[in-house]
Amino acid sequence: MNPTTTRPDAREIEALIAAHPRWSGITPDAVLRMRRQNQFRTGLDIARYTAGILRRDMAAYDADPADYTQSLGCWHGFIAQQKMISIKKHFGTTKGRYLYLSGWMVAALRSEFGPLPDQSMHEKTSVPALIAELYTFLRQADARELGMLFRDLDAARREGDSARERQLQHAVETYQTHVVPVIADIDAGFGNAEATYLLAKKMIEAGACALQIENQVSDEKQCGHQDGKVTVPHEDFIAKIRACRYAFLELGIDDGIIVARTDSLGAGLTKQIAVSTHAGDIGDLYNSYLDCDEVADLSSQNGDVILNRGGRLMRPKRLPSNLYQFREGTGADRCVLDCITALQNGADLLWIETEKPDIDQIAGMVDRIRAVVPDAKLVYNNSPSFNWTLNFRQQVFDAWSREGRDMAAYDRARLMTVDYDETPLGREADERIRTFQRDAAARAGIFHHLITLPTYHTAALSTDTLAKAYFGEAGMLGYVKGVQRREIREGIACVKHQNMAGSDLGDDHKEYFAGDAALKAGGSHNTMNQFAA
Predict the structure, then answer these.
(1) How many Å apart are CA 149 and CA 438, to the nearest integer?
(2) CA-based nearest residue to 226, from 268, 190, 196
(3) pLDDT tens-digit map of 489-516
(4) Catalytic residue at 223?
């Protein structure tokens, strides 16, 4: 036997098969290959492996902020698979690159109700189902790529090319998996702390090593970039953080990661007045930001809640919706308190949802958090809800204006126009966008940069481009020139779509199962051979 790997289980497999003489036709080499192609047997194996990656990356960032990490949101397993194949092709390693699972995209694209707003109305079971799907496609990418290595290895042996055989053997032994961490959005927990715990378990069992949970009211949850957000008191949020931690610990993922997200910067409302037992406790601090009126005559306050604030009786302003509002201008202070409290009660990473990508704004809050918790780190949403071009052109315009530059050539109200693309201001804004992640990692404590909804937008854009060409004058050339020719020339793996979908893997298995009697799909008449060059 010429084992394709030197893994410790080779002799064990040989002995196992030898002990079962009725297992006719079962070869140790085939079993070893199949095991190598499926090294993660359960979602918990994935969660345990990827949690270790994330923890090591967090430590590396603490040592050097240049070692920040990135991800793109993926709404389908195929999108995640192609992303990781692309990363390996272009950069040779998946180090520092993760997946993000966006609740927004689950709601908009994966709900059985059809497209929904980001308000936790989609089936919560669709979230762990998508995690499992992401990893199914990533594991298939491993099996496909290793299968091609095994085929090349067999060819080198048949040709007696020992140097090539050693090279391929080394490639198999040092193979880097496509399986990477996923940061998975659990929204506001889809209910109370028990509901959060139950869903967290399902997500972890599917492979999630990092859960992102936000401090909005579960049944009033809104998209982070829309109005009407309602937060919960800290004790309620801490209970859900604990629920996630218990889920990790119960399932043996002892270093699972909890990302505590605060929406307080844009949330002006609360559904509850926090319980407070003494002045200065966490409930009292939460309530201190409520917008209140002083009460002189208690007899006129029928059905109202009255707070004692430093010996003064205060009535929190309650809206017709029965929600209470915070004082304007307290969002940043509330964010800082949220973050410190979350880190002190078991969260590992923070997420501050902002209304614009402004490094100074983020850094101002992080500096205050790090004064209490020095190793505080952020996951940051490089959101498509931001108009990045306009935001950064405005930042440059305002900065140059403060410096006293002549701004007569620019109209701040028209900065989005294409006329400014190749101007000094436009180029400076683009350069700041280009370096935003690096600069924010260094200055604002951002360990992980993600884009929540990028593949939602790229799917729409690429489909629009193809439809415009194909249904127009270009006809079939619209597909050939805009898609297939580029796939071939740029080395896009799925140009051989039968191979990507598992046809060659199936042929390998047919050979294992039926030997010479196998009826294979990849013969000389397979049209995929047209792409062999």
Answers:
(1) 36
(2) 268
(3) 999 898 888 888 888 888 888 888 878 7
(4) yes
At 442 the pLDDT is: 98
Query: Tokens standing for 362?
Result: 């983020």
Separation CA 458–CA 453 (nearest Å): 9
Return the H-helix or E-strand segment holding 451. Answer: strand 446-451
Alpha carbon 156 to its chain centroid, in Å, reads 40
Cα–Cα distance between 130 and 126 in angstroms, integer? 6
d(CA 80, CA 189): 24
pLDDT of residue 222: 62
**Spatial CA neighbour of 169 closest among 145, 144, 155, 149:** 149
pLDDT of residue 182: 98
Q: How far apart are CA 478 and CA 462, in angstroms?
A: 12
The pair of three-digit structure tokens given for residue 129, joined into one six-digit string: 């189902």
SS3 of residue 185 by DSSP: strand
Helix, strand, coil tally for the chain in percent (to 5): 50, 10, 35
pLDDT of residue 1: 34
Give every residue of the chain whose pLDDT is below 50, as ranges: 1-6, 533
**One of 74, 209, 223, 292 is an active-site residue; which one?**
223
Of all helices (H) and strands (E), which one includes residue 127?
helix 126-158
Q: Which residues pair with 184 in a beta bridge?
A: 101, 211
Helix H, strand E, coil C: the string for 223-234 is CCCCCCCEECCH
* Residues 218, 236: Cα–Cα separation, whole Å: 11
